[in-house]
């Protein structure tokens, strides 16, 4: 976790304080359930809630762990210091450490998912706003980095919106994947604890009971979760790359907002660099790198080995914190992106009229010229624009083979930009609804 | 694609013949829609269906492509050879190559998903059958590779079933992700083709229209698809690793079926190696390796670049073919797995009674001994079993501190295996339903 | 392996014919060594060489393998059909299948490395030629996609040359990593075969004996090999991305060669797309995807498990074939790249004189203006160029605070391009030698 | 970076204090060189060294950066607070931020490599010691997890030693890869700074000048560095997996050292889990996950984009810290590994004599029995051991077809363990030298 790429809310989810708080709640709720079942005395269960408002002492727990080399035992020992060791004696009864650890991890991931969803919502709002703002801002569409046909800046935002909205749905599903808890004992048989305890605790904490666990909650759930984050990060990269392209000197159709105090370069004061989106490109790589380890974590030996643990200690916080930060950074970039419609037009006209070649090709075909001949005619005039800087329309009007098939008015009409934007509303309706 | 790890049905989906057939159907349906709109003459649309029963000549198309260096143009030229070049002149009108290519890829992926779902169903059936067959076959549960507490072989199969069932749901979702088509023209604006054509063609082919495309269908869909395959492959690895462990000489609780003619080793004729599950472990790595490239494919430049194409030409077939093969190999392994319940009991008793230590610990605690003392008492007797091969129950019965808290009958009762299997039915109900 | 991305020489290395030929040579040489040691009769060793010119029948071997389910046994059976089953009886004695398989794989990888080195040499030659050709072709250097200071096209080629030359050295080292053979028996103890056989066979085949093997050659060697290919592929991507940027419509400083017959787009005849370098970008992803599986292959269980095998059957051929193809495609692109020096100058002057701001900043500082003031002065004039299209030099000459520190001649001198290219020769000397 | 998996020495390399110290040294040495060249006054260069013993104030620098949003400018501003802003005015002249940042990163990586080499040396020493200690400790070799033929525990250690020694050589090469510095200005042309400064600074700091840089040092170097760490991590995993297998209850040939205070499980006091090697398995995944992002960092746009930076801020420290920790954890595990030679013998004899089947097979062949018949004879007796728990030797002695070919003494001789260990010295000589 790199502070410069962190937001406090997400960091807090992964703090030891939060972790111990969740541990406490699981243990306390489990005692309630055990008392209800008559397995432990009611007063002992109640006593545990005495620590309800305690902020657990992380340093003290670490101190105990240094001796026991076991984190849950260290916590329970510390808890007993608050509740009284006699009254605390039934805490954790019939449970295994992983019951606590795995249920906690999933609670943290659910909370992380909630923050990420909020981040995605901010991105979605920004994209939608900018999409409608630039619904009709014409801009050249490019395939292979080469001018193709006109499109609008609004469509670009709309497709990022649709992609992010898909990402959001995937994240909702991924959140559901890890919204389970398990209190099933050493190998998942409930030998020493009634399934009711699991049901009860999960209900209190907003989780579903894991239908069949071993000592641990199965890691295919977490693999799916991190894989989903990897896909979302790739969509962030997609938007970031588009903005980086738009900002490059020769294109300059948009720029990241440049605050007054900011210095672009220690050496070149005129520079305004798309550093936020470049940064997002890197952050996407960081999020994605958790995917394979999360998948390698699935095949634990028998009822569990602990190889997954160190991986999750790293990627649990790091990946969610990085993605959370990236979403908000992206939202900020989109919200404040400075857009230059004039430059969009200027760029589109770099090769005068050439982007309309497809329309002319079609018109020739429909006027009865063979596909091959149409292609040849268009290409020969296009080449003059390309190589000599000629104006496409002028050349077409001067080409007798072309004018034999199309009248000047028909040719003229092919250069109307409205032709290319006529379905923008249809697409917006598909993306944003009626 | 490695023939030895391929099944013909999946290979067929990726054959050039299948591809050209889908191209043809897209073009023919698009002509119908265009004719309906009055954009092209009805007779030209009808003429295209003359090729309905043609098996397209792959070699001929390759020959044409060698000249044009463009696959779709090569195909259209070949199609014209069948339909007549005059009648074929409106084919592909207003469309761009990617309209055909991307829609085709998604159709292939949907079909691949259907085959994979069938493979998963076979695995699920096998796992369910074996789960019920061995619902009560007691077996030691292991954490960290170390004996923990008893469980049953049925529970092991049940958890693999639950995991695969989750994988199936994920695959259904992933299939839905890529069940879209696009016929939206050069940069996705429908400038030269009415959205109705896209609607019509998609409907004919069982797809949803991509709400907003560029020249291509957005690649976050494919990233999600391959990420999902990676998770499923990791679950296959999980099962494979379990079986490999069970088959190792010292454990021998199960073995892959060994056909009479098979030779395990050129040098050691007695060997029966878990080569199928080892192979599955490797195949899982191969499936997983497509995940990152699929994610790297998301950030295409502007309205598209073609970097994704070579990646998909490889991972499209390779990953689905490998996973399909792996699912059926896994199903076969599970169906025919030879299980040795006697060895399971023998292994469990390697350290006589030691696996019951947790129960004794709990019993001591509940009998009023402090947690720390209980732990100490259990551990000191356990160590005798571990180090001197003693019998745990005998030691406990001879330990006055233990017998001060628990009567011999109470101690005896702790060694009842039924204690550990009492909730198996509950878990089975959770997994398989009532 | 995708035929369209394959070159025959590399494909041949991975053909079954080549594989069986290498198997044969290993077995035959091993027989010679065994005969020399007196372990088997000389005539039996000699008899094996009767098959020296045999092209082994792959279909027949497959047929036998269908029964035995063991490839080496199938091959030996077939060999006996040529040599005579009595005379062939000592073939493979004391050896284990992996002795043959692993030594063969390494021979194939060494040969693959040799082809890759040849491919890199072709790339290096092309880069060097173009570097010297454009040593002094001035071009704007860009950081963050934004104009920075002038550099030369030759320097761009020179740095790609230096990077590829590093790649070449790494590949030489990687080749050395896998240039080992092992004939050490079932678990690597030479129990049934004298180490002399290994020494002898390795010497005949240009390999080093693996110092300590198990049943297999350790896979860290292969992991290093594939990791190295992944780095080289990333360097290919680096060059490809640069060319794609240069070719984009707004930049157009270079173009992939566009052959007369070639059609850029079915819809837009004027388009010339950088499809080769886009393809290389995708191929780089494909090469890289082998790295993690190759690393996952390292931790085989005990003296070996066979999980690595399926992985290597795929990535062995696929990765080397793809990289080989990519190197030659890249070489072709570089050799024929069409470069537009005029456009380079035009682009550089897009913001008139602004790229010289760093020089002016330094000059002001050296003339005694404080760093902060210098920065402010440069920035305020730069902003006029940026925002109003002014000419930087003109603005500076008109700014009294600037002219108070620098004379017109001094300002003038800051706009000399030679200033930026004065060390090109030094750098070339570093890269290409005196 | 996870504190629990960190060692202070490596953490210190990545502290802001270390970073600023290196920045300072680069700037100060650069001033010396500039003064030598006569570019800046000697007294200004000397003045910079006034800060020689300053511990830079990280909080203050952060404060300045919050305004400037540029870290190097923030540092230089702070440096001026120590040196005097007038005297500091020539600091950084002609340099670009990346000159400082990239050279610093490489110095940190070189230092990290040095610590890693020390860690590897500790592992190598431990492996060598244990190898010689158990050179002749016989143990069954296993392929596919199935008993094969005897080997020795010493050979296992020896092969891990050889693998780690290869890793060490690779790390030495990787260290050399990133042992370069660059002070070449905004786009690498040395326009504003003489190459002598780069030469001088690199020499002072133990680096080689980067032959051709852009604004940055080329990232193929770093990709190679992290790829190498990934391979080493995979070798750690290899050793960890072996130990985990040895410790599993049914095998128990070795155990991680279990300190007196340690508790294996909150529930099962008898458990001794191989948690350190399981942890190493997870750490290996964490190290490996940096490889792909490091490769994705290679293709920076033009003369640089900053996408690599966030990646390196994470993987620079995290990967080296994790690997450093893992190496020392591994060394500790190997040094203190408790080995059970008796259990090794017991395991080997689980299937009485069966592991000698290969020898018998060979003996039969050499006695003139055909390969097929020999195989059949061995297999039929082996199956009795396997299925009925018979003793292999006894069965062979009772099989008339066997005794027709081999005398009882000859059969007897095949069961001599010395046969399998006779070349151990040869292998040790290969690995450890004479």
TrEMBL record, chains A, B, C, D:
<dbReference type="InterPro" id="IPR022761">
    <property type="entry name" value="Fumarate_lyase_N"/>
</dbReference>
<keyword id="KW-0658">Purine biosynthesis</keyword>
<dbReference type="InterPro" id="IPR020557">
    <property type="entry name" value="Fumarate_lyase_CS"/>
</dbReference>
<dbReference type="Pfam" id="PF10397">
    <property type="entry name" value="ADSL_C"/>
</dbReference>
<feature type="domain" description="Adenylosuccinate lyase C-terminal">
    <location>
        <begin position="352"/>
        <end position="432"/>
    </location>
</feature>
<dbReference type="GO" id="GO:0005829">
    <property type="term" value="C:cytosol"/>
</dbReference>
<dbReference type="InterPro" id="IPR000362">
    <property type="entry name" value="Fumarate_lyase_fam"/>
</dbReference>
<dbReference type="GO" id="GO:0006189">
    <property type="term" value="P:'de novo' IMP biosynthetic process"/>
</dbReference>
<keyword id="KW-0456">Lyase</keyword>
<protein>
    <recommendedName>
        <fullName>Adenylosuccinate lyase</fullName>
        <ecNumber>4.3.2.2</ecNumber>
    </recommendedName>
</protein>
<dbReference type="GO" id="GO:0070626">
    <property type="term" value="F:(S)-2-(5-amino-1-(5-phospho-D-ribosyl)imidazole-4-carboxamido) succinate lyase (fumarate-forming) activity"/>
</dbReference>
<comment type="pathway">
    <text>Purine metabolism; AMP biosynthesis via de novo pathway; AMP from IMP: step 2/2.</text>
</comment>
<comment type="pathway">
    <text>Purine metabolism; IMP biosynthesis via de novo pathway; 5-amino-1-(5-phospho-D-ribosyl)imidazole-4-carboxamide from 5-amino-1-(5-phospho-D-ribosyl)imidazole-4-carboxylate: step 2/2.</text>
</comment>
<dbReference type="InterPro" id="IPR004769">
    <property type="entry name" value="Pur_lyase"/>
</dbReference>
<dbReference type="Pfam" id="PF00206">
    <property type="entry name" value="Lyase_1"/>
</dbReference>
<dbReference type="GO" id="GO:0004018">
    <property type="term" value="F:N6-(1,2-dicarboxyethyl)AMP AMP-lyase (fumarate-forming) activity"/>
</dbReference>
<dbReference type="InterPro" id="IPR024083">
    <property type="entry name" value="Fumarase/histidase_N"/>
</dbReference>
<dbReference type="InterPro" id="IPR019468">
    <property type="entry name" value="AdenyloSucc_lyase_C"/>
</dbReference>
<dbReference type="InterPro" id="IPR008948">
    <property type="entry name" value="L-Aspartase-like"/>
</dbReference>
<comment type="similarity">
    <text>Belongs to the lyase 1 family. Adenylosuccinate lyase subfamily.</text>
</comment>
<dbReference type="GO" id="GO:0044208">
    <property type="term" value="P:'de novo' AMP biosynthetic process"/>
</dbReference>
């Amino acid at each position: 976790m790199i502070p410069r790429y962190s937001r406090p809310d997400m960091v807090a989810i992964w703090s030891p304080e939060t972790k111990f708080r969740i541990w406490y709640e699981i243990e306390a709720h489990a005692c309630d359930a055990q008392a209800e079942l008559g397995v432990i005395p009611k007063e002992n269960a109640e006593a545990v809630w005495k620590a309800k408002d305690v902020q657990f002492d992380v340093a003290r727990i670490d101190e105990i762990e240094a001796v026991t080399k076991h984190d849950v035992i260290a916590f329970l020992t510390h808890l007993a210091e608050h509740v009284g060791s006699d009254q605390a004696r039934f805490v954790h009864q019939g449970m295994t450490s992983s019951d606590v650890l795995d249920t906690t991890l999933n609670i943290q991931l659910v909370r992380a998912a909630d923050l990420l969803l909020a981040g995605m919502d901010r991105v979605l709002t920004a994209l939608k706003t900018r999409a409608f703002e630039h619904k009709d801002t014409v801009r050249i569409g490019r395939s292979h980095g080469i001018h193709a046909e006109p499109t609008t800046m609004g469509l670009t935002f709309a497709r990022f919106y649709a992609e992010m909205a898909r990402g959001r749905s995937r994240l909702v599903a991924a959140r559901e994947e890890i919204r389970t808890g398990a209190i099933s004992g050493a190998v998942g048989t409930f030998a020493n604890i009634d399934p009711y305890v699991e049901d009860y605790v999960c209900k209190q904490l907003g989780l579903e009971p894991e239908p069949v666990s071993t000592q641990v909650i199965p890691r295919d759930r977490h693999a799916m979760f991190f894989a989903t984050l990897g896909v979302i990060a790739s969509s962030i990269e997609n938007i970031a790359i588009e903005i980086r392209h738009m900002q490059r000197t020769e294109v300059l159709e948009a720029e990241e907002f440049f605050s007054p105090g900011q210095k672009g370069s220690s050496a070149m004061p005129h520079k305004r660099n798309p550093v936020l989106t470049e940064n997002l490109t890197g952050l996407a790589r960081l999020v994605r790198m958790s995917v394979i380890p999360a998948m390698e974590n699935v095949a634990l030996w028998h009822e569990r080995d602990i190889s997954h643990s160190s991986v999750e200690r790293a990627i649990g916080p790091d990946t969610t914190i990085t993605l959370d930060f990236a979403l908000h950074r992206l939202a900020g970039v989109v919200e404040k992106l400075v857009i230059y419609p004039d430059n969009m037009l200027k760029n589109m006209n770099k090769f005068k009229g050439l982007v309309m070649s497809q329309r002319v090709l079609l018109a020739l075909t429909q006027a009865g010229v063979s596909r091959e001949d149409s292609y040849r005619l268009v290409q020969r005039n296009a080449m003059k624009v390309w190589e000599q800087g000629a104006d496409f329309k002028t050349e077409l009007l001067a080409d007798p083979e072309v004018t034999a098939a199309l009248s000047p008015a028909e040719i003229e009409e092919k250069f109307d930009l409205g032709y290319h934007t006529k379905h923008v509303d249809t697409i917006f309706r598909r993306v944003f609804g009626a």
